[in-house]
Amino acid sequence: MRLTTQLTNIVVYCCLLLFIGHSVNAQQYKLNWKKEVPIIGASIGMAIPSLVLKKNKAILTEAQIANLNRNSIWKFDRISTYNWRPKSAHASDALLYTAHAFPLLTMAHPDARKEWDVIGVMAIEAYVLNLGLTSLTKEIFKRKRPFVYNANAPLSKKQQADATSSFFSGHTSVVAVNSFFTASVLTRYTTNNKLDPLIWTTAALIPAVTAGLRVRAGKHFPTDVLVGYIVGAGVGLFIPWLHRRW
Questions:
Q1: Rounded to the nearest 10 degrees, how much is the dihedral formed by the CA atoms of 31, 35, 40, 16?
Q2: Which pTM value belongs to this model?
């Protein structure tokens, strides 16, 4: 994900929060400045350092790449260093882009449509908070992607700044945050609905498939996608819970 995208999302989020306010018909969720301000500050506080760190990130040299040894990697993660499948990467990209529209599915419920503004702010809030966490962690750890160890992957890919942004998986965390956010909000309006198990199962499976594709593509280690899944799901569940009307 590009650096400018992070700041753009934060600006859009702040504008919505300032000018939309909250619905007078809100029944399930509400906004509160005592909660929103810390989340805004945390999102911006993580995004800005990640921008600076990524801008100044050093590119791997040919000598550094040649000296890499996959045997130095934990066995659980090592298997992904043999993977290089661009088609799997493209498939995971498709899931990533599609996942951005998942929160719109909450509008299928008539009661949720009455609170569209509050739900919209929460969705952007969850997305940006997750993005800040993911981006900053990537730039702090600077973990090399599995394909950097793979002789079949092109050198041009290995010498991009993104080649050292493996931990943790942004694709997995973004899909997970949108999936679990959507499931959490939908099931809030459909209490005791027979569709709830299907909603939660779908929400759990889609980021899992994304994670599998990222490992298969050689873009991430299993531990990268595991942490990405947990972080994304956690944020996707936390934001609606934080704004619930009890």
A1: 10
A2: 0.92
Distances (CA, A) of 229 to 25, 101, 226: 34, 18, 5
- Judge whether 100 and 175 are in contact, CB under 8 Å: no
Bridge partners, residue 29, by sequence: 244
Q: What is the CA radius of gyration of the chain?
A: 19
- Check if the beta carbon of residue 181 is closer than 8 Å to that of residue 103: yes
- With a cut of 80, say whether residue 192 has pLDDT above it: no
| CA dist., res. 241 & res. 238, Å (int) | 5
Two structure tokens written together for 31: 């906004």
User: CA–CA separation, 145 vs 202, rounded Å?
Assistant: 28
The answer to whether 29 and 244 are in contact (CB under 8 A) is yes
* Nearby residues of 27 by Cβ (< 8 Å), 6 or more positions away: 111, 114, 115, 245
Domain hosting residue 133, numbered range: 3-242
- Would you tell me the crossing angle of helices 116-141 and 33-55 to the nearest 10 degrees? 30
pLDDT in tens, 101-139: 999 999 999 999 999 989 998 999 999 999 999 999 999
Q: How many CB atoms lie within 10 A of CB 223?
A: 18
Q: Which tokens go with 47? A: 């995004």
Crossing angle, helix 3-20 and helix 116-141, to 10 degrees?
150
Number of domains in the chain: 1
Residues 6 or more apart whose CB falls under 8 angstroms from that of 176 comprise: 207, 210, 228, 229, 231, 232, 233, 236
